[in-house]
Amino acid sequence: MPAHANSSVGFRFAGVGAALPEKIITNGDLTVAMDTTDEWIRDRTGIGARHVGGSTSELSTLAAREALERSGLAPGDIGQVILATTSPDFICPGTAPAVAHALGLDCGAFDLQAACSGWVYGLVVANGLMLQGLVNILVIGAESLDRITDYTARDTGILFGNGAGAAIITQDPSAKGQVLGWDLGANGAHVGILYSEHDGVLQMDGKEVFRQAVTVMQRSTHASLAMAGLTIDDIDLVIPHQANTRIVDAAWKKLGFSHDKTVMILDRTGNTSAASIPLALADALADNRLRPGDNVLFLGFGAGMTWASMIVRWDGTLIGTAAW
Ligand code: COA
């Protein structure tokens, strides 16, 4: 991979929001549709329930509105919308313009498709746009995966659900926050291990996805740590893509991360692809798990295969109100 250096301006997470549709499919519900048990699903994946319903634009708008309200910013302050999704409302146009319109924004808006790595890809793009002068950027990860999931299939039907998470990042030279390191990757040789055709449902070679995920999580973590000049011990909190607790367990065993520094919401949400990391971030904030100055690692992987990581020094000071 070509070498790249880090460059970053001072910034903070000015607001974070989350949205999950009301309807829930529990593991118990799935036992009616397929030959499975709650115990097997929990044991093999860590998942207890997943949310379904709502469209990607609806869920995005709910999460982004919450992020906007928490930020204290006005709609007119937002300079760009990046919407990471693998389940857009339409093939054409993108979903981001409709979300920007629903929020009353007047700025650029585009979709970003990097599957489950999408939101972290979005953060890296947003950092680049901040370097070009944009001040407030809305980065959303949102999915309505129930549209491409067969809930009678024993491999994929147990995994996927809907949801959205959104963050507004704000350039501020006086902020403690900084991007310390990042890494983006893709290996199209593995397109065939997790995909959906137009009007189809997700098809997956679960074992191979598992193997690749464990490998790329290690690779990407090391790449971001190297750029940041940090070690594993310097990371205060890891927010990994929520796909399977056993994937995280296997990668952590090799990397040496501890579980008490890890945010996991998989039990309640299932795999929400591009939404999973911002949803977990919102959860970590609700649980008061982030302190100004913490080194936070966002770590994604997904279909493609794609992978993405970013280490930020956390500054989540809200405008005009208390810190997170
Ligand atoms: N419920 C109960 N039993 C099941 C089952 C289910 N939903 N699915 C498979 N089984 C059974 C199989 O029939 C098999 O039984 P046998 O040993 O008697 O033949 C056994 O469990 C193992 O099946 P296998 O397909 O090898 O399961 P696995 O251990 O690979 O687990 C996944 C399947 C999907 C949970 C696992 O491969 C996985 O999570 N992979 C990663 C997927 C992922 O995270 N994708 C998104 C990435 S972004």
List descriptors:
four-stranded mixed β-sheet; Peroxisomal Thiolase, Chain A, domain 1; single chain; 9 helices; 324 residues; globular; binds coenzyme A; disordered C terminus; five-stranded mixed β-sheet
Account of the 3D structure:
The chain is an alpha/beta fold and 324 residues long. It contains nine helices and 13 strands. It has a five-stranded mixed beta sheet, with helices on both faces. The termini are far apart. The structure holds coenzyme A (COA). The site of coenzyme A (COA) has 20 residues, from helix 2 and helix 6. Residues 36, 40, 44-45, 116, 154-155, 158-159, 204, 206-207, 209-210, 213, 243-244, 247, 271, 302 line the site of coenzyme A (COA).
Percent strand? 15-25%
**Order of SSEs:** EEHHEHEHEHEEEEEHEHHHEE
Spatial gap, N to C terminus: 37 Å
What ligand molecules are bound, each kind once? coenzyme A
The order of strands across the largest sheet is: 1-7-6-4-5
- For the record, the CATH architecture of the largest domain stands as 3-Layer(aba) Sandwich
Tally of structural domains: 2
pLDDT averaged residue by residue: 95
Specify the biggest β-sheet: 5 strands, mixed
Structural class assignment: alpha/beta
How would you describe the shape?
Answer: globular
Question: Helicity level, as a percent range?
Answer: 25-40%
Radius of gyration: 18 Å
Q: Please mark out the parts with pLDDT under 50 across 5 or more consecutive residues, or reply none.
A: 319-324
Annotation field: number of helices: 9
| Tally of strands | 13
CATH superfamily of the largest domain: Thiolase/Chalcone synthase
